[in-house]
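Deliverable D5.2: sample structural annotation.
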Amino acid sequence: MKYIAMVDDSEFAIDVLDDGRRIELGGQEHDLEVKDVGSHRLFSLLLDHRSYEILIEPITDPDGGSRITGYWVLVEDKVYSVAIESLEHHLLSQVAVPLAPPREEVVVRAPMPGLVVSLAVTVGEHITTGQVLLVLESMKMENEVCAPCDGVVRAVHIVAGELVAGQKVLLRID
């Protein structure tokens, strides 16, 4: 069985051979013997006839769940962060497209009362952060109302030439 081990910031491919008595690591085969010394946390590891004592502590889900996300491993007075997954799972996670969290609708409101001088976007148009959506005249000054985020214009609630009150909903963006 093949696995990928993330040890601190390094990645290693491990192939378990001969029912766990040998492993291939970095293109080299090694003899392996592991024995539980106590409480499923302390282990004796014999790797190529060299003995190591290893203490393992699970790292649980940071959101407070009981799911194990990795392990703290103490070997020769050094602590390592270790995560292990099957090669198949690792390869699938590399090509899987993460689902984007659903975006909430963004409401663009009039920052002040005024006259809509011009409207620069239409429903269905893709917009980018900072793009001018409309020009609002107030106290004889023209003010650009810009997009607060990237998105798509889903609704336009005003027309050019319309007088609007402060905080009136002008547009909706997804």
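Annotation notes: The chain has two domains: 2-95, 106-173. The CA atoms of residues 126 and 152 lie 4 Å apart.
The annotation will be released with the project's public dataset once the embargo ends.
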